[in-house]
Each structure stands twice: as structure tokens, then as C-alpha cells.
Design goal:
By secondary structure, this protein is an alpha/beta fold. It has a single domain, classed as 3-Layer(aba) Sandwich (Rossmann fold). The protein has 12 helices and 12 strands. Strands 3-1-2-5-4-8-9-10-11-12 form a 10-stranded mixed β-sheet, sandwiched between helices. It has a two-stranded antiparallel sheet with strand order 6-7. α6 (about 240-255) links the parallel β8 and β9. The longest helix is centred in the middle third of the chain and has 32 residues, at about 190-220. The termini are far apart. The model is unreliable at about 10-25 and about 360-365 (pLDDT under 50).
Length: about 400
């Protein structure tokens, strides 16, 4: 009996250990690589010069929620901020559907935490720090880009991440009121989609402009040390998808920006192909060719081939035309094998536990590392004056990074 137990017990131990690593081990995001911890402060500012145009709005004027991420000193005995439950629910549903993993086995994702600390003590409080504004994708939120945002903040940037109300995930205000998501492009015909994008582009660009104006006013009052630390002469902007379009349009319209990055975003707004001289980077996913048969067009919401060509002018074709027209330093980098959501937290969350790693082995390229590296080096060069060896020799070129 004893000998048999001695033989069986290692098997039981390995079974329990394997079960822990597969199903119970907490999911974790990669830690930021910079020398500083990351603090976060949340604000809800109201633009009294703009009325909120969405029909279901609960407030008369436009509310602009902003999260400031900043270099911080690691606080003692303080828990990191939990990851967004709304994002976790979306990703859990996706993994359950795509890989047929029961949701009960994805429970560790519910305990996922960011690497930010709420109101953590500020590091570098005697220095002026460059500011980077972040704009998320349509119907998303900055929560879905925690890995990139925290990466930049850990390297000495203050990142102001805007949540664009009513075209984002639901927003809970400090008084408990909820700004409900109201934009739905699914199943809509192309003319309506285009009209919605144009409508939202004006709002989002206005949010960015208001944020900069507000920061300038608040810095004069020096209401907090974080706001006082912002160097308003060194401002960059980065966005993904519709936020990438917002970054592009903001650099075109506002000379306060010294550098900008569009991560796989289309081009919207007035004069969307007009050149500008702000140093700019297009960071793109590889695009698959689209079929143009009448059946394929109708399925994707196009009424005609002309509508498809118009759409491409705002995306693939337009990107090439804009890049050729840009006057300042410019970079165009395509990540071969990347998908549109590669620039969000999706890839790192899909690798956040051993179970998920085993179920998503198809992705081998460390896209998040490439994204973090190129964005940091770009902003370091144009906001901090550090020449980048990574960018040397590729200015003005369209570069494809192979798998």
C-alpha cells in the first residue's frame, strides 16, 4: 500500500500542479519595461463651449473623461488597478467562441490587473515631462491599450488617454451616472457608416483640442503637481483605428503637436489627404485584398464598386497618398501577419496564462513588443531629442517587418 501510494502520489502532484498552471494560475500582463512605476489619475472635464450632440445624452455639454498615466514611485501596500471588466467580458466571449474554451476555465482573466497604481506618488516631480495624448478605437476605450500606455508612462511620459463619450464603452462618471455606448456600425450600409464616421471625427478632434486647451489653463493654476509637470512644448499624439484617424487629423489642424502616430486607422474628416509637416508615423497591419464581386460588395455594406473605391481612398489607397504627400519626417511601417486589433491588448491578453498560450499558439510574432518599441523610439526622437538607431535610415520609406 505504501509503495503504491509512493508511486501514485507524484502523479497526483503533477496533475494538481498542471491544473494550477492551466486553469487557476492568475493571468498577468507583461510588466512595463521603463525605470518607473505607473500612476493613474482620472478626471471628468466638461467643455462648456460645446453642446453634446448625441440624442440620448444625459448632459447638456460635452463631457471628456481623461485618464492621466505618469511616472510614479512604487507605492507600498497598494494593489494595482484591476483591468476593465467590460474588456475582459468581450475577450472572454471571443476566446470562448473562437477556441471553444468553456468560460469557467477563463475565470482567471477576471482577476487580471493592470500595472498602474491609483494616485501613486509622482516620480520626477521636479522635471517637466513630455505629454502624449492617446485616442482609442471606435466603440473601445483606453483600457484596451493598457500595455502600450503603461509602457510609455514607465519611460518618462505623461499619457493623457481620452475616452470619447457615446462612441466608446459605457462610461461611469464619478456621480454614478453612466454614459451609454450608442454607436453601432454593424450591418449598416456604407453611406451611413461614412456619415457616422464624419460626424464622430469632428467630435473626437474637438475632444483633443479641448483637452489641450484645458491643460494649458489648468497648468497656469497648477492645481496638481502632475498637471504642473507637463511640458506643453513637447506634445505628441497616438491613436488606434478611429483614434489613429483622430491623431492624423489633430496633427493636421493643431500646430501644438510635435509628433504623431496613426496605428492602423483610416482617414476621416475634411481634407483628409491634405499634407502637414508634423513628424508622423503610420504603423499598419497587413491588409488582405478585398473581393469586388456584387455579392461580396453587398455583404460588406457597399451598394456599388464606386463606394468600395471611396472606402479604399479612406484606407489603403489614402494611406499611400497621404504618406507620399507628408512634408515632415515620416515613417510607414507595416507588420506582416498583424491584424487590426494587434495594436490593442488582445495579443498580450491572449498570452496572459499558460492555458491561453496553448490555445493561441498560432501567433508567434511578438507584435506588442514591436509596437511598444517603435512608438517609444519615435517619441523619444521627436519629443526628447534622442536619436533612434531603430529609425535611422528608414525615414521617408515604406517598410514591411516580416513575420
Amino acid at each position: 500500500m505504501t509503495k503504491k501510494w509512493l508511486l501514485i502520489s507524484p502523479v497526483i502532484f503533477l496533475f494538481i500542479l498542471g491544473g494550477y498552471f492551466l486553469f487557476i494560475q492568475p493571468a498577468t500582463l507583461p510588466a512595463p519595461t521603463g525605470p518607473y512605476a505607473v500612476g493613474r489619475s482620472d478626471f471628468f472635464w466638461t467643455d462648456l463651449n460645446r453642446r453634446e450632440p448625441h440624442e440620448q445624452a444625459q448632459h447638456e455639454h460635452r463631457i471628456v473623461p481623461v485618464s492621466l498615466y505618469y511616472p510614479a514611485m512604487p507605492p507600498k501596500d497598494q494593489q494595482r488597478i484591476p483591468y476593465s471588466p467590460l474588456v475582459i467580458e468581450k475577450i472572454t466571449t471571443y476566446i470562448n467562441t473562437q477556441f471553444h474554451i468553456p468560460k469557467i476555465l477563463l475565470k482567471p482573466l477576471q482577476d487580471l490587473k493592470t500595472h498602474s497604481y491609483k494616485e501613486a506618488p509622482q516620480a520626477l516631480h521636479k522635471q517637466k515631462l513630455p505629454l502624449i495624448i492617446f485616442s482609442h478605437g471606435l466603440t473601445g476605450s483606453p483600457n484596451s491599450y493598457s500595455n502600450l500606455i503603461e509602457h510609455l508612462a514607465s519611460h518618462g511620459y505623461i499619457v493623457a488617454a481620452i475616452t470619447h463619450a457615446y462612441a466608446s464603452e459605457d462610461i461611469t462618471l464619478s456621480d454614478g451616472a453612466i454614459l451609454k455606448h450608442s454607436i453601432n456600425l454593424e450591418g449598416q450600409r456604407y453611406p451611413l457608416k461614412k456619415a457616422i464616421r464624419e460626424f464622430e471625427q469632428e467630435l473626437w478632434t474637438g475632444d483633443v483640442r479641448f483637452l489641450l486647451d484645458e491643460l494649458e489653463k489648468m497648468q497656469l493654476e497648477a492645481t496638481t503637481t502632475i498637471l504642473a509637470a507637463i511640458d506643453l512644448n513637447k506634445i505628441g499624439i497616438i491613436g488606434h483605428s478611429f483614434g489613429g484617424s483622430t491623431a492624423t487629423q489633430s496633427c493636421r489642424l493643431d500646430r501644438r503637436f510635435k509628433a504623431g502616430i496613426n496605428m492602423d486607422g483610416g482617414l476621416n474628416g475634411p481634407n483628409f489627404l491634405a499634407p502637414f509637416n508634423t513628424p508622423f508615423m503610420l504603423l499598419l497591419a497587413e491588409k488582405a485584398s478585398e473581393k469586388s464581386t456584387p455579392e461580396a460588395l453587398a455583404k460588406r455594406g457597399y451598394n456599388s464598386l464606386d463606394e468600395l473605391k471611396d472606402s479604399q481612398l479612406h484606407y489603403e489607397t489614402g494611406m499611400k497618398l497621404l504618406f507620399d504627400a507628408l512634408i515632415g519626417d515620416k515613417f510607414c511601417i507595416t507588420l506582416q501577419g498583424a491584424q487590426h486589433n494587434t495594436f490593442s491588448d488582445d495579443p498580450v491578453i491572449s498570452k496572459s496564462s499558460l492555458l491561453l498560450k496553448l490555445c493561441t499558439l498560432r501567433e508567434t510574432t511578438p507584435f506588442s513588443l514591436l509596437t511598444n518599441n517603435y512608438t517609444l523610439q519615435f517619441f523619444d526622437q521627436y519629443l526628447k531629442g534622442k536619436r533612434s538607431a531603430l529609425l535611422a535610415g528608414i525615414e521617408g520609406q515604406q517598410l514591411t517587418i516580416p513575420k
